[in-house]
Amino acid sequence: MKYIRLINLASVGVFGMVLSVAFCDGFRTRRKRMAVMVSMAAILLLQGILYFRIGPDMIESAYPLITHFPLAVVLCILERRLLWPVISVLTAYLCCQLRRWMALLAMVLFAGGDTMQNTVELVITVPVLLFLLRFIAPSVRSVSHGTVPMQCQFGLVPALYYGFDYLTRIYTNMLLEGVLVAVEFMPFVCSVAYLVFVSQIAERERVRVRMEQTQNSLNLQITQAVREIEALRESQRKTSIYRHDLRHHIQYLSACIENGLLEQARGYLKEVYSEIESSQITVFCENEVANLIFSAFSGRARDAGIPITVRANIPQVIAVSESDLCVLLSNALENALHACQERNKRGLSGTIEVCVSPKNGKLFLEFSNSCDGNITFDHGIPYTDSPGHGLGVRSMCGIVKKYGGMCDFSVKEGKFFFRALL
User: Fold this and answer.
1) pLDDT score, position 233
2) Among candidates 134, 14, 151, which has minimal Cα distance to 81?
3) pLDDT < 70 regions, the chain
4) Using CA atoms, how far apart are residues 11 and 6, in angstroms rounded to an integer?
5) 105 and 22 part of one domain
6) How crowded is residue 299: how many other Cβ atoms within 10 Å of its Cβ?
7) Terminus of the chain with fewer CB atoms < 10 Å: N or C?
8) Are residues 308 and 392 in the same domain?
């Protein structure tokens, strides 16, 4: 029994020290690994000597001084850090309780004694250690690169448990005697840690949603820019072709005129003119960004057979940045075009109307499109649970709010309206 307990004491020492080192991130060099191994061997040797000199019970009381403290000092020196090595030692101590609890469970289930507890702890030491090294240690090490408040928050529960375990189980019998404050302390700590965890998860989810909205806006800007570039390239390509073929057109027209085929010449001129007009970007307003967006979406609506009317008076210089204007106009037109395309799939007609103009020093926008009227609103904002939808509306509202403006969504007489003043 005495030797089983000694071997178990050595195994838990190795277990904790290996985990403490694994939770740190500065032992990639051979010199540091050798220093750690020598330090661990010295600590184990000290434990063995004291085990026979002062007994196992006294060793448990002196464990912080003969194991945890020197190990933390060695790690601080090798890592050249003060806080995280201490946290790693405390966290490793917390992980050691996995062995003890599993062994206690085996004792209860099989009505065993101290020998069974020590034996079970020995048997499960290596599997539990390998599991923690493989799946837990990398995540713990990643916390070491975080901010000091993050590290402190991570190490708070292990530190509280360390103090609680020694105060109520080793240095006193408060836990065994059932002192209510001692019994309820760790459930209290778990409750507080859980609430903090929930609040942080909620905050991270809000940050994730904001980042997703930003990413969606950036993707939309990139997509729109690609479309505009393609439209310009296509216009340039057709212009180059017509310039190259201009002499052929002139020769054909000259031949028609010389042979008195005036009607044929007029028809040919109309055909060439219509082709040229279809290849160039329509001018809707002075603002170059808005003009490109209106031109691109007008072309898409025309290709889809959706009538679109754009009345825009946007100066070249406005208070709204080009990127925000691009996202706002593109989202509004994309939503209107999508709604009309869905109606077309069901054999219904759809139209889009756009009106943008300065108003009292601000920019007034009104977009309307045909709709079925079955739109769900949440606090005045159109809501949909379809995957990938709804981000555009949030981006639009975010831009309007950014400039201290106002926006409104409504449905009236079979039309969906989006109005904004910013």
Assistant:
1) 66
2) 151
3) 1-2, 26, 213, 216-218, 220-236, 238-239, 242-245, 247-249, 273-282, 385-391
4) 9
5) yes
6) 17
7) N
8) yes
Cβ atoms of 288 and 322 within 8 Å: the answer is: no
Q: Which two tokens stand for residue 169?
A: 């189980």
pLDDT of residue 330: 86
Q: In the prediction, which pLDDT does 319 show? A: 87
Half-sphere exposure of 173 (CA within 13 A, CB side): 2
Say whether 205 sits in a helix, a strand or coil: helix
Tell me, what DSSP letter sits at residue 240? H
- Rounded to whole angstroms, how far apart are CA atoms 81 and 275? 73
Element (H, E) at 372: none
- Predicted pLDDT at 128: 95
How far, in Å, CA of 289 to CA of 264, rounded? 40
* Residue 405 phi, psi dihedral angles, 5° rounding: -95, -170
Residue 92, pLDDT score:
95
DSSP string, 106-132: HHHHHT--HHHHHHHHHHHHHHHHHHI
Domain identity same for 53 and 92: yes
Residue 4 one-letter amino acid: I
- Predicted local distance difference test score (pLDDT) of residue 191: 92
Residue pointed to by tokens 């809501």: 383
Given this model, what pLDDT does residue 346 score?
Answer: 87
Q: Please give the single-letter amino acid code of residue 112.
A: G
The answer to the question of residue 153 being in a domain is no
In terms of domains, do 129 and 38 share one? yes
CB neighbour list of residue 117: distance below 8 Å, 6 or more residues apart: 100, 103, 104, 106, 107
User: What pLDDT score was predicted for residue 227?
Assistant: 64
Among 280, 295, 328, give the residue marking a domain's end.
Answer: 280
Cα 220 to Cα 325: distance, rounded to the nearest angstrom: 12
Q: What is the CA radius of gyration of the chain?
A: 37
139 and 35, same domain (yes or no): yes
The number of distinct structural domains making up the chain is 3
Provide CB contacts within 8 A for 333, sequence distance 6+: 293, 294, 297, 352, 354, 367
Pairing of strands 352-359, 308-312: parallel
